[in-house]
């Protein structure tokens, strides 16, 4: 890094610190230095949010109930290196060390042996230090909302050309929220009709496989749902087109932030009302490979579509607590459904728990492969018993 800082502006009623019950949201742009549209429209978004506060009731409520982090450029060196604007690929895609930052994160499927770059490390630390719930990273070179997983194996169904996460329905909803609120993305025509994207969305793996991507890292290790937004066919368009890009994306950018209020949230406390960090809280049937845990304040946030769910709160060594909840679409009210868990017999602080950075799905694939022969043997034994009878 050439000594250029990665700047983040935080907006909200309490911008300087996290407040219990208020979800954290982020937008990151320009991680490929030559993809410039996102960088510019995030500056427009900042101006719009700040000037609309206390004037526009919707924006006022959004900012009062959400903490919004905006990083206009994750790769300032790559941007500065792009001397001649070009619609297609340039050297400015990479950082100062010639590395592609969107192939540089730990991967959940294979060991990508990436030498973690300063920009990547800074973002990983940022994710670790905040309780991000929802995010999007802004790119250029196509026109589509792409969602997790970008990589895959047989466990996630990649053999069928689609890598499905446990929250696939939520991701499809998130991608469509952006696409349908965008001026033209929902039409799904792609760029130069190279590749049509039905409804303007795609599963990342279905489009093309990549390892070390930021969105998969956010979801697996950051407990944060992130999608990748490709906002322009031309990576570095002429300046006079920027106003139109802002108009095309303005509504979608706001509607997408509102989705941070989907689902259910709450606190896990002990018998004295003290928060229990690192308690596992997940919806039944949606186990994450890296279990989703409460933060230092004992808070959890689960993005879920309207419906009936069983929420399971577990403190290691104690009986889990199950609660059936009916979730409605509360995005218009700027607050997810609230449900707290109190462990009356617990009066200890849960120990710190971290998830290993190894390719977790690789282990899962090995485990599922190891189970298969055992099943065959069981079938064989059953058949032989029937024959001998």
What does this structure look like?
The protein has helices spanning 37-52, 57-65, 76-81, 118-129, 168-181, 204-207, 214-221, 242-258, 360-388; strands at 9-11, 24-29, 67-71, 132-139, 142-147, 201-203, 225-232, 264-270, 280-283, 299-302, 307-314, 321-327, 337-338, 341-343. The protein is of the alpha/beta class and 389 residues long. The protein has 3 domains: 9-261, Zn peptidases (Aminopeptidase, 3-Layer(aba) Sandwich), CATH 3.40.630; 264-342, Carboxypeptidase-like, regulatory domain (Immunoglobulin-like, Sandwich), CATH 2.60.40.1120; 360-388. A 7-stranded mixed beta sheet has the order 1-3-2-4-7-5-6, sandwiched between helices. Strands 8, 10, 13 and 14 form a 4-stranded mixed beta sheet that branches. α5 links the parallel β5 (142-147) and β6. α1 (37-52) packs across α8 (242-258) and α5 runs antiparallel to α8 (242-258). The protein is globular. Mean pLDDT is 92; it is low at 373-389. It holds the Pfam family Peptidase_M14. Keywords: Carboxypeptidase, Glycoprotein, Hydrolase, Protease. InterPro entries: CarboxyPept-like_regulatory, CARBOXYPEPT_ZN_1, Peptidase_M14, Peptidase_M14_domain. One of its GO terms (molecular function) is metallocarboxypeptidase activity.
Could you outline the blueprint of secondary structure elements for this entry?
Layout: E1 9-11, E2 24-29, H1 37-52, H2 57-65, E3 67-71, H3 76-81, H4 118-129, E4 132-139, E5 142-147, H5 168-181, E6 201-203, H6 204-207, H7 214-221, E7 225-232, H8 242-258, E8 264-270, E9 280-283, E10 299-302, E11 307-314, E12 321-327, E13 337-338, E14 341-343, H9 360-388
Parallel strand pairs: 2-3, 2-4, 4-7, 5-6, 8-13, 8-14
Antiparallel strand pairs: 1-3, 5-7, 8-10, 9-11, 11-12
Helix pairs in contact: 1-8, 5-8
